[in-house]
Structures are given as structure tokens and as C-alpha cells.
Write a structure and sequence with these properties.
The structure holds 2 protein chains of 2 kinds.
Chain A lengths: L4 E2 L3 H17 L6 H27 L3 E8 L5 E6 L1 H24 L6 H19 L4 H14 L1 H4 L5 H32 L15 H18 L8 H8 L2 H27 L1 H7 L2 H20 L4 H21 L3 H32 L10 H4 L1 H15 L5 H16 L3 H26 L10 H5 L6 H19 L7 H13 L1
Parallel strand pairs in A: 1-2
Antiparallel strand pairs in A: 2-3
Chain B lengths: L7 H19 L4 H29 L2 E4 L10 E4 L5 H23 L5 H20 L3 H20 L4 H32 L4 H8 L6 H18 L8 H7 L2 H11 L1 H17 L5 H23 L4 H22 L2 H32 L10 H4 L1 H14 L6 H15 L3 H27 L15 H19 L2 H15 L5
Antiparallel strand pairs in B: 1-2
Helix pairs in contact in B: 1-2, 1-4, 2-3, 2-4, 3-4, 3-10, 3-14, 3-19, 4-5, 5-6, 5-10, 6-8, 6-9, 7-11, 8-11, 9-10, 9-13, 10-14, 11-20, 12-13, 12-18, 13-14, 13-17, 13-18, 14-16, 14-17, 14-19, 14-20, 16-19, 17-18, 17-19
């Protein structure tokens, strides 16, 4: 164990609490709904508390490290938390809690809830595991579990469309996962059993081999991170999945790919080596293309969830761009954008889910006058859209500010156009929805929709509460940027560490 | 210490052999007696094999000479790390026999049940003998015991289609045995000894290596038919799919491994003696291994019968192992050797759960079994664990082999095969996803399968013991890996011996 690392039971507890919650949920088939909700909420809140205390410790600069079990004679399953991992794990825990509470209302009349909640909680465990991975094998274990075991959530509706989307999802994810596996095996072969920390690879290992490893990593994680042209699964999987899962899918799962890219660039290769290899120019170009291309496609989507899915692709392009600029400011922007985007996109999908559930409409053209029927939801959607575009003082502005600084800092000024263009396009694909909500007259009531039956279109408080919390977080993340445990300061400190 | 008692080694073979022979006589009155007898015998076998594994882990390889006649003149049993396969055989055999308690009366005529247990015990005795013998001719004899009892077990249901499958198995099995015998004969001609250790020493000073090369080629060919390596696999799918499910578990998990354990034995001799250069053969095996992975998966995709899918999946997994042998680097060999053990566990878990599903529902086609995951939650979950494990999702047992063999490919400076392995494995996902999709996510065609309920405990327990091992052996992968490493170290040792 390296100097300065603390062993702490909190780190594995943050992984095993949701894992246990998932197992309990899987066995809870015959339980009364209230008891199941209480147990799951308790597990999820406990996870947030644990991840929070890990975050607070990490923000003071301590590295927390626990070895769990020796999987091969050389390699441990090893959890080790640095600032980047702590921030990512915390964002996941909070977003999952919000989505879980949202699920209680949203999924109430759905089938096979035991299965849904089980895999939902398990996916949180795997995400926290990815965030806290201490070496590449551990990363791979959690990453693959996470990729494969979310399949039941993608196909949860069991409609032919959901199954088709699931097939597309699993094919993309498996191919990406195989590339990641190969890259990790190759990196392990070159570097031996080392922990994530100081860069694992160095130029002495042969340029050709390093390039193979690098591009395998980027292609593999690029599938998850939805880098164009590897993004095909994202627009199909989101509309098919239940809304609370779409929220975490967009908010955190896609970001797992971006997180992987960060680990590769900062921890596996190291800033010095990627500069030496001169590979980031291509990645940056790809990321910039992703930002613009996905935003343009988003404009043309009629299904609101599809439009949001394309928006996710575009936003993850920002993250990849921030990493690819190889600059401390840009890295700060990229890291903090993962956390910010999680709550922005989470809130937007919560809104979309409410509108679909309560009004029975999912086409953008049918959004006319939503604000009259669902004022709270519409207000949340409008505020989050502004944040997504990057309006100060909301969360999206913070990350884009640092990305912009990084672009200027690294002297690749052309990407400033991409940054601004992407933000403008975000306005073009989000604001018309807001406009329709507020300034168009509502369409006649859809026959047989919940609206026609109940007459009270606004969602119940159980679903509005997580939405309001997400919007509040978007505001807080934009305003509250100075404490040491705030995402921005953590991201700054993490980036400084990587660029030292 | 109690585990050092020398006679454990002969006992572990003689107990199931003797018990098997007398089973029909014991159980003339009731079939229940046959089960009790077989279960007792196999429990005793597990008990006798355990001290052997402890001893080899503590002290390294050891020998037993019958009647005090020392080799090369006497018969020798030699127990090294590879022989620990005997323990896996006894353990899986025990689970298969427990599983058979309810399954056999359902699948077979009552009159045949005593013979069923007799054959199963003989088969296990052959497998154990095969893995512990230190003598080439006895190797052949035990191989024949395995094969003959195997043919009979495939045919035991007496259905016409079973007889056909058994006949196909018999013809190819007999031919492959002939190749092995021919090779052993040639080695005997060259060295003048049948004892493996002795032959190794004499081979290292043989001047004319052409006959040795022919012998090695012939034995490998024979063993690869037994292991069902593509394109020598044609006998396997029918035989494994049609046999009663506990037998399928034994055949797919263990009997196929005869060829692979045999290969490991042969390679130990050839590597240690440096008599012939294996580079060309290894390259061929690597290619065939890769082809086997892909083709096994390819055939499986078009199956609708769940046991047929599992049978083809064995061909893919044999491909992994043979590819590991062919790459011949340290990591690859360790991965291949460990996967011989792990695949036995995983595939048995799969066949037993498939058997339980067939027992409960009466259906064996995927299209009829839609929604069965809801009807049989515990069985479905065990099958899902097995499926996740066999496609190599970390941290399950199947992942270790992928990790090690891919590492081995890089180590052998043959990165392309690492890619072939991992992407070939993607094809395996295709039909397991199809299977899980049908079980869990598709609307049922037969309404009754969604409420059949889980099978009795005598089936659930063996199935879940294996499913739990699929997980545990991955997480605790260090244990099998460190256990098997000395073999590979000795094989690749520069000085020989």
C-alpha cells in the first residue's frame, strides 16, 4: 500500500450497501410495497451518507484504500478512492437516490418491480465500484458487471421495441467491453499488477504497443461514452427504458465511459505520455465532432426522450473534449461537467417521464401548453434547459467556463467555436420545447390518458420532490463552488494532481 | 498426518470401480437401494480424494507403487496437480448422483436404473484412474472404461434417437482410441517402457525423432477427437444433448476433458524430454482452438433445444483450452489448465439446471420455454449465473480463463489471438442472451411454464452448489491458479525434468 493511504471500512461499505439492497429487493417479490420502499430508501440514503463521508475525506487529499480479495496470484480486488473517484461515486449515489424516490411514484403500476429494483440498486453498486476501483482488474470487474447487468433494466418494459433496443444495447456494449478487456489485459501485460495512481505505462514499452492499447481503450470506452460514430445504442435505449432508469442511464452510465477515458488518460497513460504519443489531437477532433453532430441530430428528433438522448451524446462530447485538450483547466471543466450533467440530465428525464406518464404525450409537437397543466414540471424543465445551455449562474455554466478557459489555455482556439456552437444548438433543441410549453395553447385532452381520467395533471409530490431536488442541485452546483468538498474544488484539485 | 496415508491413492480408483461393478447385484430388490449404494460409494470416493489434494498441495507430486514393485517394472499411480482433476470428478459425480435421485426414475425405465448407476460409477472410476495413472497403457485402459461406459450412458434411455447418437459417439470414439493406442505403441517401441516418467527420461536421449513425432501427432489427434475440437466435434452435440441431464453434465464437464487432461500429460512428457519440437503442432492447435470457439458458437446460435446449445458451447470452451495449450506460454497454460476445472463446474451447473427445467416443464425447446424464469425462479437464477460465468463476465470463474489466455497470447507475442479469443467469445454471448431473453423477457407461449415451480431439493441443492462455485472460483481465483502453477513451471522449466 502506498504511503498516505488510509484503510477504511467506509469505502467497501459504500459498494456493498446498494449491493445488499439489490439482493434484498430481488427477494422482496411478496413484500408489501411500503416495506420494500422503506428498505430500499434506507439502503440508498445510507449509500449517499457513506459516499459523502468518503468524499469529505478525499477532499482533504487523503487516499483511502482497501484490498478485498485476491483474485489471481498477482492481483487484488482493490478499492482505492482519489478525488476523481470520490466525486464520481458521490454524484452516482445522489442521482440514484433521486431516481429511486422518483421510481416509487413512477413505477407504482408497473410489473415485476422486484426485478426492477434489484437491478436498479445493483447498478448503483457497480457504478460506485467503478468509481472506487483501485486497479485495472477491479475496474474491469465492476465495469463489465455494470454493463451487462443493466440489460434487464433496458428491456424492462418487455415490449418488442424495448427488446430490440436491448439487443442493440448489448451488442454495442459487449463489443466495447471486449475492447476494454483487451486494452486492460494488454496494459496489465505491459505494466504488471500496479494500482491506479501514478501512470502505469511509459514510453519504454514501445510506441506501437502503447498506441494499440490507447486506441483500444478509447474505442472501448467511446462506445459507452457515446462518442460518434460509436453512439448508436444511446438514442434507442433511452426511449425504451423506464424514465427513472433513463435518467441514470443518461446521467451516470454514459458518463462511465467518459470516466473510463479520464482514468486512461490521467492514470494509465499519464499526461506526459499522451503528450509524447501525440494522440489527443485526433480524440479532440472526434469529441468536437460529437458535440456538434449529436446536437444537430437532436434538433431533428420528435420524441422528447430521443432528443434528450442525443443531447447526452453531445454533452458527453464536451467531457471528452475537455480531456482531450490535455490542459488542467479543461480537465477541471470535464470532471465537473460529469457531475453537473448528471443532475441536469436527470432532471430533464424526470420531467420527460412525468409528461409522458401524466399527459400521455411524448412528441415534441404535443408539448403545447404543458405549463398550464403541469406548472411545476414545466418550470423545472425550463430552468434545467437554461442550465444545460450554460446560462450563469446555473451548473452548466461552471463547467463550460472552465472548458473555455482550458481551450484558450491550450491555444486550440478553434474549439471555442465548438463550445459556443454546442451551447447554441442546445438552445435550439431545448428552448422550442420550453416555448411550446409556455406560449402555445394546450391541445385537446388525449382520450384514455391519465389526464382524461384523473383530471389533475400535475404529478404527485412523491415524483415532484426528486425533480425539485435535482433542480435545486443544479442551482446549488452553479452557485456553491468554493468549499473544498464542492465538485468544482474537487475537480480542480484532482486535475492539479494529474497535471503535476 | 492422516492425509499422508499412502493407500488413499489406490482407494480413490478402486472404490468407485468395485462399487460400480456390484451395483446391479446390490440393487436387485429396489432401485432406491441402487441410489443409496451409489451415493455412498461416491461419497467415499470424494472422501478418499480429498486427502490426495491436500497432500499434493502440501508436498508436491507423489507416487504409489502396487505391491511394492517399483517403476519402471511395476504399475505406478502418480498424483500431481493435474491429477487433482480426480477430486473434481468425484465431487461432480457426487452431485450428479444426488441430482439423479429424482431425475433417473423420470427419464429411464425402472429396470435400467441399477445399470445407470453402475455405469455412472464405472465412468467416474475411469475418469479418476485416467487422471492418476502413471502408466501409458493404463491410461489407455482407463480411457476405454470411460468411453465404453459413456456410450452406454448415452444410449441408456433406449430411445431410438439416443441409440443413434450413441452409435455415432461409439464409432468416432473407437477410432480416436485407436489413434491414441497407436501412438502409445510407437512410444513404447521407441523407449521400451510404458511408465510415463521413465519414458520421459528415455525420450530425451532418443536419436531418431521422426517416430516420436508421429506418435505425438497420433496421440494428439486421438485426444482432440475425444475433446471434440472443431472440426473433430461431430459426435458431441447429439450425444451430450440426448443423454439424461446428469449424464450430460458428466460427459460435457468431465469426459470431454479426458482429451485435454491427456494432452496435458503428453505435453508434460514432450516438453520435459525436449524430444520433438512442438512449434508447428502448437500453431495448428492455436488456429483450431480459435476456429473451435467461433464455430461452436456459430452452430449454437441456430439451435432451439437448450441442451443442444449447451453441448455446442462445450466445443467453444474446448477451443479456449486448446488455444491455451497451443499458445504454450506460461499464462496461457495456467489459464487453460484452470479452465479444465472451471469449465467442468460451470457446464455441470448449466446442464443440471437445464435438466431441472426439462424435468419440471417437459419442454426442452427455447420457444416453448419462454417465461420459465418466472415459473422456476431459483432454477432460472442458477442457469443465469452459469451463463454469465461461461461467457466470461468478471468476476466469475469463466473470466479467469479469458484473462489468463489473453495475457498468454500477449506473452507469446501473438496479440492477434488475444483479439481472436475475446471477439470470438462475443459469439458465445449471442445465444446465451437469446436463452436468457427467452427465459425472462419474452412473453410465454406455453402458459403453464410460468407457474411450474422449482424442482425438489435433491435437484436444487446440487445446482446451486455449482452455481455458487461459479462465482466463488472466480473471486477466489487465486486458489486454483496457485495450485496449478507448479505443473506449468515444471513443464516450461529450461532444464527439463
Amino acid at each position: 500500500m502506498e504511503a498516505g493511504a488510509q484503510a477504511s471500512w467506509i469505502v467497501p461499505a459504500a459498494v456493498f450497501t446498494p449491493l445488499l439492497g439489490g439482493v434484498v429487493a430481488g427477494l422482496s417479490g411478496a413484500w408489501p410495497e411500503t416495506r420494500r420502499r422503506l428498505v430500499l430508501a434506507a439502503a440508498s440514503i445510507l449509500t449517499v451518507v457513506l459516499a459523502g463521508s468518503v468524499l469529505v475525506r478525499a477532499s482533504s487529499g487523503a487516499t483511502q484504500s482497501v484490498r478485498l480479495v485476491k483474485m489471481t496470484p498477482q492481483v487484488w480486488i482493490h478499492l482505492r478512492v482519489d478525488r476523481l473517484g470520490a466525486l464520481y461515486g458521490m454524484a452516482a449515489a445522489v442521482l440514484w437516490l433521486l431516481a429511486l424516490v422518483y421510481s416509487f411514484g413512477y413505477m407504482a403500476d408497473e410489473h415485476r418491480l422486484g426485478r426492477y429494483y434489484a437491478f436498479f440498486m445493483l447498478s448503483l453498486a457497480w457504478t460506485v465500484g467503478v468509481a472506487y476501483s483501485g486497479n485495472l482488474l477491479t475496474f474491469l470487474v465492476f465495469y463489465e458487471l455494470f454493463s451487462i447487468l443493466t440489460y434487464p433494466l433496458v428491456v424492462h418494459e418487455q415490449t418488442p421495441e424495448a427488446l430490440a433496443a436491448g439487443t442493440k444495447y448489448i451488442v454495442y456494449i459487449l463489443i466495447g467491453g471486449s475492447l476494454v478487456l483487451l486494452a486492460i489485459v494488454y496494459a496489465y501485460f505491459l505494466a504488471g499488477a500496479q494500482d491506479i495512481g501514478s501512470p502505469l505505462l511509459d514510453l519504454g514499452m514501445g510506441r506501437g504497443q502503447l498506441l494499440v492499447v490507447f486506441w483500444c481503450f478509447i474505442a472501448g470506452f467511446g462506445v459507452k461514452a457515446a462518442l460518434v460514430p460509436l453512439h448508436g445504442w444511446v438514442p434507442d435505449a433511452h426511449p425504451a427504458a423506464p424514465a427513472p432508469f433513463s435518467a441514470v442511464l443518461s446521467g451516470m452510465m454514459v458518463a462511465t465511459g467518459s470516466f473510463g477515458i479520464m482514468r486512461v488518460v490521467y492514470n494509465v497513460f499519464g499526461v506526459g505520455l499522451v503528450r509524447e504519443l501525440a494522440v489527443m489531437k485526433q480524440v479532440a477532433a472526434l469529441a468536437a465532432f460529437t458535440v456538434v453532430f449529436a446536437a444537430v441530430l437532436a434538433m431533428h428528433q420528435d420524441d422528447i426522450k430521443r432528443r434528450l438522448a442525443y443531447s447526452t451524446i453531445s454533452q458527453m462530447g464536451y467531457v471528452a473534449l475537455g480531456v482531450a485538450l490535455v490542459d488542467a483547466q479543461a480537465a477541471t471543466g470535464a470532471i465537473v461537467h460529469v457531475a453537473n450533467h448528471a443532475f441536469m440530465k436527470g432532471a430533464l428525464f424526470f420531467c420527460a417521464g412525468l409528461i409522458i406518464k401524466r399527459l400521455g404525450v411524448r412528441s415534441v409537437r404535443e408539448m403545447d401548453g404543458v405549463a398550464k397543466r403541469m406548472p411545476v414540471t414545466a418550470a423545472a424543465f425550463a430552468a434545467t434547459s437554461l442550465a444545460m445551455i450554460g446560462t450563469p449562474p446555473l451548473a452548466g455554466f461552471v463547467s463550460k467556463w472552465y472548458l473555455g478557459l482550458g481551450i484558450l489555455d491550450s491555444g486550440q482556439v478553434a474549439y471555442l467555436g465548438v463550445l459556443v456552437g454546442g451551447a447554441l444548438l442546445a438552445g435550439v433543441y431545448l428552448l422550442p420545447i420550453v416555448y411550446r410549453m409556455y406560449f402555445n395553447e394546450p391541445a385537446p385532452v388525449v382520450e384514455g390518458s391519465p389526464l382524461a381520467q384523473a383530471g389533475a395533471p400535475e404529478a404527485p409530490a412523491t415524483m415532484l420532490a426528486p425533480l425539485a431536488a435535482a433542480v435545486l442541485l443544479v442551482v446549488v452546483l452553479g452557485l456553491c463552488t468554493t468549499p473544498a468538498w464542492s465538485p468544482l474544488q474537487l475537480a480542480k484539485a484532482a486535475a492539479e494532481g494529474f497535471f503535476r | 498426518m492422516w492425509w499422508q496415508w499412502p493407500h488413499w491413492l489406490p482407494l480413490v480408483v478402486l472404490v468407485p470401480l468395485g462399487a460400480g461393478v456390484v451395483t446391479p447385484a446390490i440393487s436387485r430388490k429396489s432401485t432406491k437401494a441402487a441410489w443409496v449404494w451409489a451415493a455412498t460409494a461416491v461419497a467415499a470416493t470424494v472422501g478418499a480424494s480429498l486427502p490426495l489434494v491436500i497432500r499434493v498441495a502440501q508436498e508436491g507430486p507423489f507416487s504409489y507403487t502396487f505391491g511394492g514393485w517399483t517403476p519402471p517394472y511395476g504399475i505406478e499411480f502418480r498424483f500431481d496437480e493435474v491429477s487433482a482433476f480426480a477430486f473434481v470428478v468425484a465431487f461432480l459425480g457426487a452431485l450428479a448422483i444426488v441430482f439423479s435421485l429424482r431425475y433417473a426414475p423420470h427419464a429411464l425405465d425402472e429396470a435400467r436404473i441399477p445399470y445407470y448407476y453402475a455405469l455412472l460409477l464405472l465412468n467416474l472410476a475411469g475418469l479418476i484412474g485416467f487422471s492418476v495413472t502413471g502408466d501409458m497403457f493404463n491410461l489407455y485402459v482407463f480411457m476405454e472404461i470411460i468411453s465404453l461406459s459413456g456410450y452406454a450412458l448415452v444410449a441408456i434411455s433406449g430411445e431410438r434417437i439416443a441409440e443413434m447418437a450413441a452409435f455415432k459417439y461409439l464409432v468416432l470414439g473407437a477410432v480416436s482410441s485407436l489413434f491414441v493406442l497407436f501412438g502409445i505403441g510407437m512410444l513404447y517401441g521407441v523407449t521400451g517402457t510404458l511408465n510415463i516418467a521413465d519414458a520421459t527420461q528415455r525420450l530425451s536421449v532418443v536419436a531418431d525423432t521422426v517416430p516420436v513425432a508421429v506418435a505425438v501427432g497420433s496421440i494428439v489427434l486421438g485426444f482432440m477427437v475425444k475433446a471434440a475440437l472443431f472440426p473433430l466435434h461431430v459426435w458431441l452435440p447429439d450425444a451430450h444433448a440426448i443423454a439424461p441431464s446428469p449424464v450430460s453434465a458428466v460427459l460435457s464437464g468431465l469426459v470431454v476433458k479426458v482429451g485435454l487432461v491427456g494432452m496435458l500429460r503428453l505435453y508434460q512428457v514432450v516438453y520435459a524430454s525436449r524430444a520433438v519440437d512442438l512449434v508447428t503442432l502448437n500453431r495448428l492447435l492455436t488456429w483450431l482452438g480459435a476456429a473451435s470457439i467461433v464455430m461452436g458458437a456459430f452452430f449454437a446460435m441456430f439451435q432451439d433445444d437448450i441442451k443442444m446449445m449447451l453441448a455446442y458451447s462445450t466445443i467453444s470452451n474446448v477451443g479456449y483450452i486448446v488455444m491455451g495449450f497451443g499458445l504454450a506460454s506460461r499464462y496461457a497454460l495456467v489459464g487453460a489448465a484452470v479452465h479444465i476445472f472451471n469449465h467442468a463446474l460451470i457446464k455441470s451447473a448449466l446442464f443440471l439446471s437445464a435438466g431441472a427445467i426439462i424435468y419440471q416443464t417437459g419442454y426442452r425447446r427455447l420457444s416453448d420455454l419462454r417465461g420459465v424464469g418466472r415459473g422456476m425462479p431459483l432454477t432460472g437464477a442458477a442457469l443465469a449465473v452459469g451463463a454469465v460465468s461461461i461467457v466470461g463476465i468478471p468476476p466469475t470463474a469463466g473470466f479467469l480463463c479469458k484473462w489468463y489466455i489473453a495475457l498468454g497470447a500477449f506473452e507469446a507475442k501473438n496479440a492477434a489471438f488475444g483479439f481472436a479469443l475475446v471477439f470470438g467469445a462475443l459469439f458465445i454471448f449471442v445465444y446465451y442472451i437469446r436463452m436468457l431473453n427467452a427465459f425472462y423477457f419474452q412473453e410465454p407461449v406455453r402458459a403453464e411454464v410460468t407457474h411450474v415451480g422449482d424442482p425438489p431439493l435433491s435437484m436444487l441443492v446440487p445446482m446451486w452448489v455449482l452455481a455458487a462455485l461459479c462465482l466463488a472460483m472466480g473471486l477466489a481465483g487465486k486458489v486454483p491458479l496457485t495450485f496449478i502453477e507448479p505443473v506449468v513451471t515444471r513443464m516450461l522449466a529450461p532444464t527439463g525434468g
